[in-house]
From TrEMBL, chains A, B, C:
InterPro entries: Metal_Hydrolase (IPR032466), Uronate_isomerase (IPR003766)
Record-stated family: Belongs to the metallo-dependent hydrolases superfamily. Uronate isomerase family.
Annotated protein name in UniProt: Uronate isomerase
Organism phylogeny: Bacteria, Bacillati, Actinomycetota, Actinomycetes, Micrococcales
Signal peptide: none
Gene3D superfamilies: Metal-dependent hydrolases, uronate isomerase, domain 2, chain A
Top EC class of this enzyme: isomerase
Keywords, sorted A to Z: Isomerase
Region (Disordered): 1-20
UniProt xrefs under NCBIfam families: PRK02925.1
Pathway the protein acts in: Carbohydrate metabolism; pentose and glucuronate interconversion
One GO MF term: glucuronate isomerase activity
Known catalytic reactions: D-glucuronate = D-fructuronate
């Protein structure tokens, strides 16, 4: 196909400068003013899944599909839902997929993304980062793939160059308990790199003896810390040591994903007993014991945060790997983690009773069940000094849901007890588009308060600045 | 009372051409353009409760109240809530009610319907179908009743004439397991009738041994199929045969209403055991056994759909007959079926693990609990190829709720994995008004995406076409 | 600091006449028209926590902090969430706090209230009632405190003068089972006072044998009634007598707050057995027995309402005193009562089966879990003549949530089956500002229906009148 034919058939790709702003002209003008005040502010990304080694090593990205499609479960799941099997999307390591084929699938299903927030921010990304001017289509798929592949071989598209282009000031990664954080150390020691890339300590695997990798992670955590984890006291000591190691490498926060937010502590004798029994093998503990152990660990985790000052992020309520055949064949993170019913007020009561007013303790609560914002997270953040209402995340980090979140949480807790935007992404090149989306959605929300005279325009501009800068800095102790 | 006095006191009935469109002039213009593109498209009604015999026999409707009030639980429940006892609304067969009296109740309570979606679409229906130009009132009740009664005796108001007037292309009915589908057969064989009236196989009664009519329906299903249902294998064979019979009569779908969406299969031995025990009488099985049997049946139902291709509709979560005294006196479907807490992700896991990616399997999920759209139905439809997000239904088939549904579901699943509008109605004459409402509400939603530059106007018009035509055709295999 | 410096640094306090109205000019004009029709209507406050003695005795308020900050848990909790310990907010009676210090905390944290509904109505209150023209700030705190303190010593700021200034027509208080209602009697007998101040019978403490004060309240209720409450029949007789006493003092309603809405009745023998066992001491009954007793009491409470005509208000679903250390140190009502998951349809079934269609029975359902409006409260109010959908309350009595409530409940139940606004406040001076907020929010909602042609402007104005006058009068039998 020739470029001419593509040019004539494909729709233009032209994100509008006023996108996401309210329709009413007066409100739109205010939203534009509020947005413009923060449009170019540096990006603070306190929660994400980019690999630090990617930036430390600064190697070129392999190909457009491996960069833009295969690692992004937002895009992958919509393609799968619309009939593209995962084995045609590069998710089987044993049968390498042609990136060009993957891109053709995306391009020919572009219409299925109509109206979704994924298409919204992917358009911005393709336009702003990669200079595309036509929407993907079956006709232009090969042409656009070649264009992208050429770009990715140029110096301006290496990870560090993009870090600067994107205007990232702080980027937090997510790291395992036994991580050596060597890439973080290299970046910190590198005089040619001025950004902050911070590790985040994520130790879920250690919390849950029912997980198949629990014994392995308990052992490797101990090895990393040089502390014997055969006892529960040993494990706690090893975790404390590892947290200290993370702090020395710049970490300001931990992250924890659990099925539920239960936080009832156990006696020392009881947690030692379950710990030892679990070490003897998967059949060593009952499901109830494993759950009790996990709930106790969440409590200990908060206790450690009170001691060492690491911000505690908590995102319970995700059912992992809903579709067993897909897990068996393609592994985890393949689009079938699904939201569970959210619950915080009851399960967090033991933890909050003991630490909810502890000086300096910050607990950021995330959910994928929107009903919890108005009923639980807002009211908790509106009383407990320690609690912060985390931004909407994953299934609900969308323009519409961000508006619903603001309306629900601001009512109970204002702006100061929120987290600022969280991109939570593996898709490096989507970071600026997604922060831009959040800034626009917040500008739209603030404009709605101004135009109904609940806020002055000056207050709205000031609040927008706080949301992209002061609030994440304060909440995450950056 | 004289006609003159009525004319002066009654409010005009004049549905506005721009109703339901956004207030902002730019957005309203877009909504109008989008709506006009589909306003006159044929009606596809893939889920409803009109009796096929009504159309096959084409007998005149008896009287205005029996047509417009008594069978419509939307209207009946609001009258009851505002103080009109059901025995004055024609719901007791032993004491025949004067239709004129029923209409007077409606007219004198017209004000209690202010602001409700029921009043909204009933106004359109009275205006467009019956030519009323004044709102119902105590003063004009008799006059309007006479006008309606006269119309119903005219040839243009016979069911088949209205079928054409309404522009219905496909109308699906809901039919019992032992239905002979004679009316459907007559319509299909009738060269003078060009519409499609399709049966839908609804076999809930067979699923639940705790129901008082279970043994009766199991037997009648067997008789209809000519297969002995004394064993569970026999029942499954009879159901398969009946499904085939429905397919031969044009069915493309089944429909199932259950209290919860549990779908855990049983072993063959266990389901046979419960089946036989249940056949011995109501006391033969425990509540837990009846529930286990019902969950297994839901699993088998999906299995059969994978085999024979019938689309599986599922609408769990309705507590039937909440008010026992009303049930005892007036029977079921008298306005006190109420929404339960929705749940899909957990209970459907067994079914989806085995059939969620089966080629050609379509599972349309409906709910009356809105919280489920963003948390469960959208995310499920956004991963599983088999799952479609059913339109808001019953308590939430309203302009406001349709907007909330679109915002919640489009975020996770776009438009292609939705069902299109479902009128689910017994009230034949409300069909065009209610599809019109849905087209307007969707136009308003699409306009909101256009005016915030998330969609182009061309894409919005194209999407509106898909919603009223391509999407229901594809989802329901029409 | 001089007044000049304050004038230059503080932001102006100038509530806009169009606040809360929609941005679109056409919709705003309609909202303004609707609002102006009811802006000056008398205030009917059928549910609140002002002390009748305050008005009967008409003593001056002590100081600005004790009047405006310390008793208002809306304000207190946001200050606490943003780092001000409760002991600096006047909540420890043993260490009297300087009101001026409390006010300084509020003023210097004014920015943390940005965008919250609390700031919204507090601004109106400070402006309209107290004539402030600058927003509170650290700089003007002492000046404003002095201004307020001076005002509070003037005759126009005594409780009775404010009652007239506020335009209150009816004010319902909340009173204990053993209340002598002397202040109510004095007010009723006072020819110089023309307002209605009505008691409301709140007997939660009697319902729950698990409460530490249960035995005490059972005894005091008996003493107040002159009936021995050693038996459950005795307690029921005493409660009936007390209800009659309340009726004689003008009460038209009871109020009940319980953890859940369970309403299953017990046999006479069983409730007598639990009653006697509970009287023997806290260890006399199990948690399950206490719950069963409480559920039975809710059922009896409805039965009594059917008999004596008192409107039954029910607001379940609040977890009281979530943070034990705060309860221990500062007592109840200190900002950490939190919303629980709402549930009505299932738990109220026994009560509604027996009384849901009883003539004259009014049951007003309140929730702090918004998800219940569309799923449960709206549908219940849309069938049962007895059920009324209570206005959003406590955590959700905000402009945004009122809009969501109207959209959810009007769909199922229209306007006639709702309660009208409930201020539920201890903060006497916030009453006019909060009713004004509700009138504006309802005007905005009604305008949204008019501008989308679901309602005429005449109907909207008429409905606004009904909402502030006819509807609360009818619902609460005023």
């Amino acid at each position: 196909m020739t470029q001419t034919s593509t040019t004539t058939t494909a729709a233009p790709l032209a994100p509008h400068p006023d996108r996401l702003f309210p329709a009413d002209p007066a409100a739109r003008d205010i939203a534009r003013t509020v947005y413009e005040a923060v449009a170019d502010a540096p990006i603070i990304s306190p929660h994400g899944h980019v690999d630090a080694a990617l930036i430390a090593d600064d190697v070129p990205f392999p190909d457009p599909a491996t960069l833009l499609v295969t690692p992004d479960h937002y895009i992958l799941r919509l393609l799968h839902a619309n009939g593209v099997p995962l084995d045609q999307l590069g998710r089987v390591s044993t049968t390498p997929t042609d990136g060009r084929e993957v891109w053709r699938h995306l391009a020919s299903h572009w219409d299925d993304f109509l109206g979704t927030p994924v298409r919204y921010w992917f358009e911005t990304e393709l336009h702003d980062v990669f200079g595309l001017r036509s929407a993907p289509s079956a006709e232009n798929a090969d042409e656009q793939y070649d264009h992208l592949a050429t770009l990715l071989r140029s110096p301006g598209f290496r990870p560090r160059a993009l870090f600067d282009t994107f205007g990232i000031e702080v980027l937090a990664t997510t790291d395992a308990p036994d991580a050596d954080l060597a890439a973080h150390a290299r970046l910190a020691a590198d005089p040619t790199f001025s950004g902050r890339v911070l590790p985040t300590f994520r130790a879920d695997a250690v919390f849950d003896p029912a997980r198949s990798d629990w014994r392995h992670v308990v052992a490797s955590t101990g090895e990393a810390a040089g502390i014997d984890t055969a006892t529960h006291d040993g494990l706690l000591a090893a975790l404390r040591a590892r947290r200290q190691y993370f702090i020395e490498h710049g970490a300001t926060a931990t992250d924890t994903g659990v099925l539920d937010a239960g936080s009832t502590p156990l006696s020392a004798a009881e947690r030692e007993r379950i710990h030892r029994a679990a070490l003897e093998g998967p059949s060593g503990v009952t499901a109830a014991e494993a759950t009790a152990y996990r709930h106790d660990m969440l409590y200990r985790w908060a206790e450690m945060s009170v001691d060492d000052g690491l911000v505690m992020q908590l995102h319970p309520g995700v059912l992992r790997n809903h579709h067993q055949p897909t897990l068996d064949r393609f592994g985890p993170d393949t689009g079938h983690d699904l939201p569970a019913v959210g619950s915080f007020t009851e399960p967090l009561r033991p933890l909050l009773n003991d630490f909810g007013t502890a000086p300096g303790f910050h607990l950021v609560l995330f959910t994928v069940d929107e009903t919890v914002f108005s009923r639980e997270i807002g009211p908790l953040a509106g009383f407990y000094p320690a609690v912060y209402a985390g931004a909407p995340w994953w299934f609900i980090d969308t323009p519409a849901a961000i508006g619903r979140y603001r309306a629900a949480v601001t009512d109970s807790a204002g702006f100061t007890k929120t987290s600022g935007f969280i991109d939570d992404t593996r898709a490096y090149c989507s970071i600026p588009a997604r922060h831009d989306m959040a800034r626009r959605a917040d500008a739209a929300y603030l404009a709605s308060l101004v135009v109904t005279h609940q806020l002055t325009e000056e207050d709205a501009v000031r609040t927008a600045h706080r949301i992209v800068s002061d609030i994440p800095r304060a909440t995450f102790k950056l």
